[in-house]
Amino acid sequence: MTSQERSPAGYTAERHPELFKERPAKGNKPGQLSRAQLDEFYTRGFTLVRDFFAKEELDALKVDIAAKVSELADKLYNAGKIKDKHKGLGFYYRLCAIERDFPGANIVLLKMTPNLPPSFRAIAAHERMLNLLEDIVGPNISFNPVWNLRTKTPNNAASTVPWHQDSGYFDVESYNALVVTAWVPLLDANEQNGTLQMFGVDMAKDPVTLDVPYGSFLLFNNFTPHRSLNNRSDVVRWSIDFRWQRTGTPAGLFGLKPTCEVRRHGEPDFRPDWDSFDSVDRNRAQLESMAWDDSAADEFNILMSGPWMKKWEIVNHNKHTDEFEKNSEDWKLEMLHG
Fold first, then answer.
1. InterPro entries attached here (predicted)?
2. Rounded to 5, what percent of the chain is helix, strand, coil?
3. pLDDT above 50: residue 337
């Protein structure tokens, strides 16, 4: 590279093919993938895992989310932001109505959910899921702090995510870590309501649009290019992405929050320390690391930002990146390194 050339702050020229060559031995525990599925995960970067969860497991997630939506409605109503709580609408419609009354309500909901509700913890430490992960990351497994509740309301540009790799949001110290994502939709996800598209390893081929039935999930890694489509239906396309990695590898969240150990080899009675994990509010830590004023304390602020923005050469803009660039001179570049 010449002295005149400039690379983005997140570029390191690192290569880590060993992450995909050094595979743990194939196990034979309940929930583990077939050899064909593992091969697809390693060669294409993703695989669809069908009919994995019981209905009651995902229904429990919906109950906890519905409670947070009610809390959101109360908060907005009591603050005079909305005039109707829309109590009579169901799980897939209520947030749509609240969002129409207060654009950005879905962002407020995300900021109101810093900790893992009980049903989310159950998935994060799910016995069969951890068995599955053993074949990829080994027997010592930690939960990554970058989990997300996705509130994709209809025709909402703010929730339509362009092509990216998850490592683009992680710090550079984590580039040698394999982080495995389970993208779990809470309905039958399809092209109409905003499912995911994957590129896989071969970028020359067309994107793959994946229908993901309720009870199934997409498994992919932090290097797999993917995006979500616009939700052209009339319901919320609820989904959650959970992430795990080998214990001892970098969390990737710029030193703001560590991982949580969920399985320890040789200790079948091991239990995660969720209270310690939840003692750090990731959303607030991200905002405070970037705040130039009191915006991090504003519970109705609908802007999202984080230290990963310092990594990017921003070529597509929205209200979040506009605010970042307006104030970027005030943020510290060393946040890139935690």
1. Phytyl_CoA_dOase-like
2. 35, 15, 50
3. no
- So what's the pLDDT on residue 13? 78
More confidently predicted of 205 and 231: 231
pLDDT at residue 19, rounded to an integer: 84
What is the C-alpha to C-alpha distance for residues 52 and 153, in angstroms, rounded to an integer?
25
Amino acid at 332: K
CA atoms within 13 A on the CB side of 113: 27
What does residue 59 show for φ and ψ, rounded to 5 degrees? -60, -35
Return the pLDDT at 296.
53
Residue of 101, 229, 106 whose CA lies nearest to 163: 229
Which is the CATH superfamily of the domain at 17-281? q2cbj1_9rhob like domain (2.60.120.620)
Residues 6+ apart with CB under 8 A from 93: 234, 235, 236
Residue 152 per-residue DSSP state: E
Q: Determine contact, residues 289/171, Cβ cutoff 8 Å.
A: no
CA 188 to chain centre: 19
CB atoms within 10 A of CB 207: 16
Is residue 332 over pLDDT 50? no
Contact 225, 238 (CB under 8 A): no
Contacting residues for 152 by C-beta, under 8 A, at least 6 apart = 159, 160, 193, 194, 228, 231, 236, 237, 238, 239
Per the listing, tokens 């994957």 go with 198
